[in-house]
Amino acid sequence: DTEVTQTPKHLVMGMTNKKSLKCEQHMGHRAMYWYKQKAKKPPELMFVYSYEKLSINESVPSRFSPECPNSSLLNLHLHALQPEDSALYLCASSQVWGTNTEAFFGQGTRLTVV
Amino acid sequence: QQQVKQSPQSLIVQKGGISIINCAYENTAFDYFPWYQQFPGKGPALLIAIRPDVSEKKEGRFTISFNKSAKQFSLHIMDSQPGDSATYFCAASKVTGSSNTGKLIFGQGTTLQVKP
């Protein structure tokens, strides 16, 4: 099973709302990632968790707040977003870096901020 | 130093033809080079990957060629099919050693259209 499951698939939120994106994997991966992808652009890394600890924050605005409650789950809490934050948000997981480090992506959450 | 340059931006190939997408990188510390395939509205799917100690890797109709001295790698899709029509991203990462991060640096993507 190489599946990374993201919910919801689509989300529309107002600029004053608070919402959360969820990601789950059962491959035993201990590295999990959030990427943001705008239309016709490559994914851009936002956060990396390694062994449930935040290891990389790519200078992401504080209105995005990641959380890794356990080794299978990754959340992204959203608050006071801007319309320019509308994008496809992708979760990925992999073994912690080494010789077998393929990263598997979920289907993404299409976020629209109105 | 962290960039991965991908070309062409778009590609049209006849069914049965060979699709070739090229990437170049700058950081010699990169030691893992995957290719991802992405259909509209879907997440990227890992297609094939190579490490720098190998010059070529083949999986079915997909082949990666790797030139370490030129810091270039390419994806060849043999016998291209309409179902291969998608966006392809090359990427690079450093996955071993003390300064690894697991961070994937993506190329800008190539939109492939295979005409029936």
Layout of helices and strands, plus pairs?
The complex is a heterodimer of chains A (114) and B (116).
Chain A: E1 4-7, E2 10-13, E3 18-25, E4 31-37, E5 44-50, E6 53-57, E7 64-70, E8 73-79, E9 87-94, E10 104-105, E11 109-113
Parallel strand pairs in A: 2-11
Antiparallel strand pairs in A: 1-3, 3-8, 4-5, 4-9, 5-6, 7-8, 9-10, 9-11
Chain B: E1 4-7, E2 10-14, E3 19-25, E4 33-38, E5 45-50, E6 56-59, E7 62-67, E8 72-77, E9 86-92, E10 105-106, E11 110-115
Parallel strand pairs in B: 2-11
Antiparallel strand pairs in B: 1-3, 3-8, 4-5, 4-9, 6-7, 7-8, 9-10, 9-11
Mean pLDDT of chain A: 93
Oligomeric organization of the protein chains: heterodimer
Structural class of chain B: mainly beta
Q: What pair of chains forms the biggest interface?
A: A-B, 29 and 24 residues
Rg of chain B, nearest Å: 14 Å
| Helix amount of chain A | under 10%
- Give me the number of helical elements of chain B: 0
Please state roughly what percent of the residues of chain A sit in beta strands, choosing from under 5%, 5-15%, 15-25%, 25-35%, 35-45% or over 45%: over 45%
What's the overall geometry of chain B?
Answer: globular
Q: Please report which band the strand proportion of chain B falls in: under 5%, 5-15%, 15-25%, 25-35%, 35-45% or over 45%.
A: over 45%
Total beta strand runs of chain A: 11
Apparent shape of chain A:
globular
Q: Biggest β-sheet of chain A, characterized?
A: 7 strands, mixed
Between the first and last Cα atoms of chain B, what is the distance in angstroms?
Answer: 40 Å
Q: Could you describe the 3D structure shown?
A:
The complex is a heterodimer of chains A (114) and B (116). Chain A is mainly β and 114 residues long. Chain A is globular and about 40 Å long. Chain A is 0% helix and 56% strand. In chain A, the strands form two sheets. In chain A, strands 2, 4, 5, 6, 9, 10 and 11 form a seven-stranded mixed sheet that branches. Chain A starts with a strand and ends with a strand. Chain A has strands at 4-7, 10-13, 18-25, 31-37, 44-50, 53-57, 64-70, 73-79, 87-94, 104-105, 109-113. Chain B is an all-beta fold and 116 residues long. In chain B, the strands form two sheets. In chain B, strands 2, 4, 5, 9, 10 and 11 form a six-stranded mixed sheet that branches. Chain B has a five-stranded antiparallel sheet with strand order 1-3-8-7-6, with no helix packed on it. Chain B is globular. The A-B interface holds A 4, 6, 31, 33, 40-43, 45, 48, 50, 55-56, 88, 90, 94, 96-99, 101-108, 110 and B 32, 34, 36, 41-46, 49, 89, 93-96, 100-104, 106-109.
